[in-house]
Write a structure and sequence with these properties.
Distance between the termini: 29 Å
Radius of gyration: 16 Å
Largest sheet: 6 strands, antiparallel
Structural class: alpha+beta
Strand content: 25-35%
Low-confidence stretches: 1-18, 173-184
């Protein structure tokens, strides 16, 4: 039997279990010693995405609103994201159904991940925001990999992977990302 839970758990002040707005949005920022164009390439080009956020293989990317970028997270499954915004080299956004491996990300089964790149001297200030956890129903078997908590810790690691990869072409020994299950 498959049980579905909301990403939030009720507390004493909120016995109905309504979503905690502070646990709906993850935001991470980092400054990268690489141009916005280089960081953009790292975030969107097939040969790069698989290195910092996958299994090291090129990631299929149809880089247009409505297109799909297919993340391969090995034991966690594959995740066909739906690209929402493409504004090179400034903004990139996609929907990600991390609780539903193999399912195309759409409103209702996914969170929204947004990357904003701002020139910062010779480098780039990158902001990553993931929202939508409050409205997301997560199957019990996916809670460890798709919850707010796992993504909070995962993005902490991923922004460092992006920085390292954009600056050096390596993730300093980290093979691919582990956004799922990274913990806090």
């Amino acid at each position: 039997m498959s049980e579905t839970q909301h990403a939030r758990t009720p507390d004493a002040a909120d016995p109905a279990g309504a979503a905690d707005p502070q646990r709906d949005r993850i935001e991470k920022e980092i400054t990268i010693a690489a141009s916005p164009e280089r960081v953009w390439a790292v975030l969107t080009e097939p040969k790069h995405v698989g290195n910092w956020f996958g299994q090291g293989e090129p990631t299929p990317v149809d880089l247009r609103p409505g297109g799909t970028m297919l993340f391969d997270h090995g034991e966690y499954g594959t995740f066909p994201t739906t690209i929402v915004e493409v504004d090179p080299p400034h903004r990139f956004a996609y929907r990600w159904a991390s609780a539903h491996p193999g399912e195309q990300a759409v409103d209702g089964n996914s969170t929204l991940v947004e990357f904003t790149l701002v020139p910062d001297g010779d480098g780039t200030h990158l902001t990553v925001v993931e929202t939508g956890f409050a409205a997301l129903a997560i199957p019990a078997e996916s809670m460890q990999n798709a919850s707010y908590e796992s993504h909070e810790g995962g993005w902490t690691e991923q922004v460092v992977n992006i920085k390292n990869y954009a600056e050096t072409g390596r993730t300093d020994g980290v093979t691919g990302g582990d956004c799922e299950g990274a913990g806090s």
